[in-house]
Here is the input.
Amino acid sequence: MTQQSPRPAHGIEVDALSVDLGGRRVLADATVRVRPGELVGLLGPNGAGKTTLLRSILGLVPARSGTVRIDGRRPAEARSLVGYVPQRHEFAWDFPITVEEAVLTGRTARIGWMRRPKTADYRAADEALGRVGMAALRRRPVGELSGGQRQRVLVARALALAPTALLLDEPFTGLDMPSQELLTDLFTRLAREGHAVLMTTHDIAAALHDCTRLCLINRRIIADGTTAQLGDPAVWMRAYDIRPDNPLLRVVAAAVDQEEPADALTR
Here is the structure.
């Protein structure tokens, strides 16, 4: 009997991606892998190309060269597989809809445009709200929510699609510590359940502690590895264009000291 080969893990696969915007190269030859079960932190300074990379994975930004695959499919074929949590200011919070209605908008890739939600869609929205602790507020207008509640609504909106991959763009910005902890626990749990999770964040200390792996980016991938693999100050200095005495390097060193040493994959 012929033994079948194991099914490929897939997840998010970005190969040699280059992107030009406004006549300027904003991403150059970027290669990133996020396997199912991983929570990967995408770290870099403002203007490093983090959000552009997420939008390229979604198929919203055209690539000059390179490829993107989600579970082996091109972005246009994988819209129902990817949940996206944008930065909070990108959502129209003054629009007169309830929390539940906002979460249902995340089902558009499955419902279709100009079609009414069905029982399965409401069930998916309710389950997503329960996961982020917002089920009791499903009837509340979104304009009345606090910053932490709004962020949880955006996460529920992404989860309502029942995606295999999640893209999170600065999900902790402006949140209090309890909200950050709630979402960190949720993202970690989703990764353990088999989702491929890619998150941009400026909270470097938390990323060093919580992420499965880190990708340092500054228009190109500078380094990719676990916290233990990223102990070389040089890769952080290259990624953030900082001096050897920057306090960030002490934060990194302290985190690395708690991990087993290993070799970093640098570029």
